[in-house]
Each structure stands twice: as structure tokens, then as C-alpha cells.
Amino acid sequence: MSHTNVHVTDFTRSTVRRLALALGLTAIFVVVEIMAGLFANSLALMTDAAHNATDAIALALTWWALRFTTRPANSGKTYGYHRAGILVALVNSTTLVLISLGIFYDAYRRLLAPPEVKADVLIGVGLAAVAVNLVTALLVRRGSRHDLNIKSAYIHLMGDVLSTVGAVAAGIIIRFTDMDWLDPLVSIFIGLLILWNAWGILRESISILMESTPADIDMETLQADILTVEGVRGVHDLHVWSIAQSLRTLSAHIITDDIPISESSVVQSAVSELLNRKYGIGHATLQLECVDCISPELFCDITANNHVHMH
User: Fold this and answer.
1) Residues sharing a CB contact under 8 Å with residue 292, sequence separation 6 or more, in sequence order
2) C-alpha to C-alpha distance for 42 and 207, rounded to whole angstroms
3) Class for domain 219-310, per CATH?
4) pTM of the model
């Protein structure tokens, strides 16, 4: 356990350093891109600068949340501070939705009356943006598969890489054709891309905060697997939820024969090992009961139980 904790701490420190570097690069480039967008009269550049600004905010929040989640559990926060990262992911994705709506409005106005765009500036700054966004995205990439907080920041940055490629393409076409209306059209494409990325993070964040069952877990299959463990006679009051994207927990009542505690601990260990190995559930609270305690309900209605207790 101590070796694992050391590994997690080292990984967190490394991630915090990489996030800080990515934040610095992004913040500097936002200023450069805003100045270039104003000079070139390019909505695509201004749009990308706005997106980069949200990236800087997202990286700052991600950095804060990652440091915050390392705090140990206490009597006030018995599960620790892991949900801080989920809250940040929710804020990041909501911000992206609002930015997208603003982009659509500005693009609509410019499509009605396309202004002249300085294509050379758009191309030059766009190429620089691709390089900066790609570097910062690669800095944040490690750990994004198993942490929704880091994933939200990574998607922010990868969205920028694709959107700036689109801005450069628009600049090249405008340079040779004077089709200035392509600038707001690319902005709409960028807005749609941002909205699509934001929706996935927003949906998963809300699902975790609502304590939904993880999408890749089928409860009937999980129940059937538990029943295959030797000594298990039944399962009820079964709950599975996520504290964070990679931190799953389960509680259940396990029915066994009327056996000594020493034997029931073997059953409990076997169920816990199965849950960890097959479903990635590292924290399982199992209440063992004898066969006479079997309940007809697989899932417990907390509201109904609380109503009975109040009466």
C-alpha cells in the first residue's frame, strides 16, 4: 500500500508540473492570438483565442483540483476530496457550451456581412497556434484516460489543435480566393467541435454526480458473477457508483449459510477480489447475512426506508 501511495504521489506531482507548464504556454499565446486577431480582423483567430482562454482557465482549475484531491479523508469528508475533479470537469464543459453559443452568434453576424480578413496573419498565427496547442495537449495527455478532470483539459486542448488546423485551411483559401465568408464558416465548425466535445464530458460528469452505475457495468451480470463465489447464496441491497471516473465503490448484502465469522471472511475476501479484478471496483462494503435474512429486493429504496424510520 505504501509503495502504491508513493507511486500515486509521484505521478500527481509530475502531472501538476506538466499542467503548470501547459498553463503558462497557453496564457502567453492567448495574448498573442488576441492581438493578431484584432490586427487581422479575423473572427476565426478571435474565436480560437477565446477557446484558448477557456483552455487556460480549464488548465488552472484542473491543476487546482488535482492538488486538492490529494488531501486525505477526514471526519467531514469521509470519502476524501475526489469529487473536486468531477466538479471542475462539470465547470469546464459548461463553459465550453457557453463559448460555443457565443461563437455561433458572432459567426451569424459576420456571415450576413463578411469583413475583409488579413489571410497572411491568419495563416501565420494559426500555424503557431497548432504548434502551441499540440505541445500543451501532449503535456496533459498522460493520465487523461482514467481521470475525467485531466480528460476535460486534454479535450479542450485537442479541440484547439483541430480548430486551428481549420483556421489555417480557411486562411489559405481566403489568401488565394478572397472568400472572406469562410472565416465565420470555420468558426461555426469550431463551435460545433467544441460543443460535441463538451457534451461528452458534461454527460459523464453529471452521471457521476448523480451516482449512476458506471456505463460499462451490467448489474445483472455483476450479480450473477457474485453468485458464482463459493459460499454465496444470494445478493440484495446492491449499489454501484463512482466517486471519480477511476474510483468505483460498491455496497451489498451477501447471503451465506449460518457459518462462523472466520469462514464468512473468506467469502467476503473472494467477492472483493472478484469485484476488483473483473469490474475495477476497489472499494466494496459487504454486509454478510445468513439465509433467513434474504430480502426480495435486489436494489434498496432509500427513500422508502427513510420514511419508515421517520414514522
Assistant:
1) 258
2) 38
3) alpha beta
4) 0.70
Query: Judging by beta carbons within 10 Å of its beta carbon (0-12, 13-18, 19+), is residue 103 exposed, middle or buried?
Result: buried
Report d(CA 249, CA 246) in Å as an integer: 10
Ranges under pLDDT 70 in the chain? 1-12, 43-44, 48, 51, 115, 117, 143-144, 146, 292-311
Retrieve residue 281's grid coordinates. 471496483
Report the amino acid identity of residue 163.
Answer: S
Q: How far is CA 177 from CA 116, 181, 245, in A?
A: 12, 11, 48
- Return phi, psi of residue 122, to 5°: -60, -45
pLDDT in tens, 124-145: 877 887 888 888 888 877 766 7
**CA pair distance 184, 103, nearest whole angstrom:** 9
The pLDDT value recorded for residue 311 is: 45
Start-to-end C-alpha separation, the chain: 45
Question: Could you tell me the three cell numbers for 256?
Answer: 451465506
Domain ranges of the chain: 2-209, 219-310
80: region left, alpha or beta (phi > 0 left; psi from -120 to 50 alpha): left
Give, in words, the CATH class of 2-209: mainly alpha
